Every structure is written in C-alpha cells, then in structure tokens.
UniProtKB/TrEMBL annotation:
GO terms for cellular component: cytosol. ATP binds at residue 288. It is found in: Cytoplasm. It is an enzyme of class 6 (ligase). Residues 415-459 form the Cysteinyl-tRNA ligase anticodon binding domain. One of its GO terms (biological process) is cysteinyl-tRNA aminoacylation. The lineage of its organism: Bacteria, Candidatus Falkowiibacteriota. Its cofactor is Zn(2+). Its main location: cytoplasm. It catalyses: tRNA(Cys) + L-cysteine + ATP = L-cysteinyl-tRNA(Cys) + AMP + diphosphate. Belongs to the class-I aminoacyl-tRNA synthetase family. This is Cysteine--tRNA ligase. A motif ('KMSKS' region) lies at residues 285-289. Its EC number is 6.1.1.16.
Length: 465
C-alpha cells in the first residue's frame, strides 16, 4: 500500500504519517462556534477534515475523532477583546445563550449530514468541561505561566520557548499582529486570556448568562483552553492530528500549543493540518462578520441543488489552495457531478471485483497529501478504461468510501424539480433513521406528484411514472 504523506504546518513539509499507536489514531478538529449558521466557508474546512478521516480509515487505521462545540468563550475578536459570540447571538435573537447554542448545534449537525460528513465519535461542549479547563489553568498557575489583570488570568507567552513554532512568524511580526487590539495590562502583546472575569465583578456592569465560579472568581474560560483541555481528556496518549482552518494557525492553535506544552511539558499533537479559505468572488474571505456569508441552505438547497454538489466542488480544489465561490462555479460542479452520476448509472451491477491497479493509482494520489483533484481524475481514468462494467462499478464504489458522493444511490436526483428533490432527501433522512412510517408517507407523497421511487439492492432509483 502507498505510504500516507500529509503536509504538517509545524514543519512546513509533507511528512510520512506515523501514528503514535497503530491500533487507533487520535484526530481533533476544531468545531463550530454555535451562535449562528455555519457558512459554506466553514463547511469547506469540515469537508476537508472528513476527507482526511476517510483517507486514514481507507489506509486501515481506526480513528477516534473528537470535535468540540464552542458554546462559550469565543469573543468577537480572536484576541480576548469584544463580546462573547454566544452572548451576541442571544441578544440578536432574544433567546438564552443555551437555546442559541442548542439551535445552531442542531443546524450544524444537519449540514454535516447533508454533506455526507461522517459524525465525530465525540462532540464535547465547552460548557460541560469547565472543571477540566479550570484544572489546567491551575496547573499553569502553579508552574508560573500566568498572571492576573483586572479582567482575567492571562498566559505569559514570553515564558514559553518557541511560541512561534507553528506560525513561524518572527517575534516582531507576532507583536505587530497582536498590537491592533489594545489591552494595556498585558505584559506581552501576544499574551492571551485563560480565564475572564465576569463583568459583574467590575462595579456598575451587568453580568453574563454563562458564568462559573473558579479559584480566581466568577467568570468564564478563554476560547483556546477548551480545545487543549478537551483534546487531552478525550484523546489521552493519542495526540496524533489536529486540524482547523488556516486562520487558526497564528492565534488559536499557537496558543493551544503554548498552554498545553507548558502545562504538560510534552509535545501537543504531532501533525497540524490546515485547510485554506473559501473566498467569495473578488478575493474576499467568507466570514460571518462580513455581509458575504452564505449558508448551505441559501447557496444550494433553496435553489434546488443537491448539497453534495458543494461537496464535489470542494473536492475539485486541493485543500491547501484557496477556493473561489461563485454561482458559476457551483453550476459547473453540478454539471460535473451530474455527468459522473450518469456515467455510473450505466454500470449498476453487484457482481464486479475491485480492480487493484486502478485502486493503487487512486490511493497513490489520495495518500499524497489528500490530492482529491487528482483522485477525481483517476475516477475518470477508471470509467474510461476498458474494464468490465461490473468491475468499474465495484471499484468506483470503493473510491466512494473517500469521495462520499453517494455513488451507490445515484439517480437523476440532480434534475428533479425542487419540491420532489426535497421530498426525496427527506425520505432518505427518514430511512437513515429507520423511521419507516415517515418514509412510507413520503413515498406516497412523491408518487402523488408523478414520480416513482424504487429501493433496489443497488440503491435508490427515481423516475417519472
Ligand atoms: P468558527 O465557527 O468561526 O470557529 O469556524 C469554524 C471553522 O471554519 C474553523 O476551522 C475556521 O478556521 C474555518 N473557517 C472560517 N472561515 C473560513 C473560510 N472562509 N473558508 C474556510 N474555512 C473557514
Ligand atoms: Zn480549537
């Protein structure tokens, strides 16, 4: 089998992947801040991480995947300034922070399902592991890495050697980046909050909804500490791979490494992988703080486009290259996926064999730092080869373990009228949850609208009556 190479942001090199324990790999991916819908930029990062996990599994590894849910502590400025995003969401919608978190967590899980992203094994919420975060801050305090200001307990970055080992920035550049947000009590511009005091502790100010007691007074944890505390709790001894978007390199992940290694004296994660941004046409990063933020719902589903078209579009760009969003690009991806579905529809057959030669070629590019654009080219090579249809089908279904494009249940779903498409998707959801009653109801509704749905051994087929 081809060796697996991954680009490690720590060393800035493609490295052969070597797990700590061969029996199971620990994978930690920074999860969403649940104060709003995920935008398709965020979702690009989650698709990249899903591909990584599927590739690890394809290579025979078992994976323990942990993704946190940030439901407290992430401020509007990544450097401890501004308001807690959950409190912002709560004010915006006039609901409690807890209600906001529950609602957007559900919406996020729904997006993952629609994009065929496999569920993490564990999704711990920051608010449920405050004790672990406080313990870690206590350790850092004992070891002399912290100091107190009027608004919280801070980590002293000048006490941690190689603070820049992930960002590779010079001290001057790091300071420059940090200087924008003024906090005169910080000893170094790069220092960051481990624990923030409740505004209530300062006279005349109102408190927050989410606060806890601690040895330092009532308050809430900083954003970075949750990922350190929860990854160590759930991946004990298996800190193999940690991922996120590139915006996490200079602050969030840099701070996670500093506080974790300061606390334990040991290396915190061997491989750091980062996905590049989705930009909106014109070169601007898609962000919730900008007006340019598109959800899966408004960019695709409302237009009657299967969300897997977005997954396909993501696969077409290497994860370390910037991806440009435009309606035209989505249109082209729709055409591309439709073409692939039509190619495969012709091949349906259960009795084929996986072709080793084609699989090796596919795996070689996939294992070369997740080169999915090349992998899609290998799919075309296979489909255009002179292998028998059953063998092509068996082989392409094997590839789909990584692609996750539902190649086994292809139909002409992409061309269905929007209402039928929605019903078909709903029915598939009901079937996945084994809700047969709901699924039968939906089938009847689909039939009444003039379409026939058929569940065959090879998957679902749909056509006009
Ligand atoms: P957040 O919910 O803001 O904490 O972000 C969730 C994930 O999306 C993180 O891994 C971010 O690095 C990533 N992310 C944020 N904006 C973009 C973007 N425009 N393109 C790709 N990934 C992004
Ligand atoms: Zn994180």
């Amino acid at each position: 089998m081809a060796k697996l190479y991954l680009y490690n942001s720590l060393t800035r090199k493609k490295e052969e992947f070597k797990p700590i324990n061969k029996d199971k790999i620990g994978l930690y991916t920074c999860g969403p801040t649940v104060y709003n819908y995920a935008h398709i930029g965020n979702l690009r990062t989650y698709v990249f991480e899903d591909i990584l996990k599927r590739v690890l599994k394809y290579n025979g590894y078992k994976v323990n995947h942990v993704m946190n849910i940030t439901d407290v502590g992430h401020l509007t400025g990544d450097r401890d300034m501004g308001e807690d995003k959950l409190e912002v969401g709560s004010k915006r919608e006039g609901k409690s922070a807890k209600k906001i978190a529950d609602f957007y967590t559900k919406a996020f899980l729904n997006d993952l399902k629609k994009l065929n992203i496999e569920m993490p094994d564990k999704m711990p919420k920051a608010t449920e592991y405050i004790k672990e975060q406080v313990e870690m801050i206590k350790t850092l305090e004992k070891k002399g890495f912290t100091y107190k200001t009027s608004d919280g307990i801070y980590f002293n970055t000048s006490k941690f050697k190689n603070y820049n080992k992930l960002s590779h920035l010079k001290l001057d550049e790091l300071k420059e980046g940090a200087r924008v947000e003024k906090n005169n009590e910080k000893r170094n511009p790069t220092d960051f909050a481990l624990w923030k005091f409740s505004p209530r502790l300062r006279s005349g100010q109102v408190g927050r909804q989410q606060e806890w007691t601690s040895p330092w007074g009532v308050g809430f944890p900083g954003w970075h500490i949750e990922c350190s505390a929860m990854s160590m709790k759930f991946l004990k001894g298996r800190l193999d791979i940690h991922c996120g978007g590139i915006d996490h390199i200079n602050i969030h992940h840099t701070n996670e490494i500093a506080q974790s290694e300061a606390a334990t004296g040991k290396k915190f994660f061997n491989y750091w992988l980062h996905g590049a941004f989705l930009n909106i046409a014109g070169g601007k990063k898609m962000a919730k703080s900008e007006e340019n933020f598109l959800t899966l719902e408004n960019a695709l589903i409302k237009k009657g486009i299967n969300p897997l078209v977005y997954r396909f579009a993501v696969l077409q760009t290497h994860y370390r290259k910037t991806m440009e969003y435009s309606e035209e690009a989505i249109g082209a991806a729709k055409k591309g996926l439709n073409h692939l579905y039509n190619q495969i529809k012709e091949l349906r057959n259960k009795k084929g064999k996986i072709n080793k030669e084609h699989e090796d070629k596919f795996l070689k590019v996939v294992n070369d730092d997740l080169n999915l654009p090349q992998a899609l080219a290998k799919v075309q090579e296979l489909l255009k080869s002179n292998l028998s249809n059953p063998d092509k089908f068996a082989t392409v279904l094997r590839f789909d373990k990584i692609l996750g494009l539902n190649l086994d249940t292809t139909s002409n779903k992409l061309e269905l009228p929007e209402n039928i498409f929605q019903l078909v998707n709903k029915r598939e959801g009901a079937r996945k949850e084994k809700n047969w009653e709901e699924s039968d109801k939906l089938r009847i509704e689909i039939e009444k609208s003039g379409y026939l749905i058929e569940d065959t051994e090879d998957g679902m087929r749909i056509g006009k009556r």
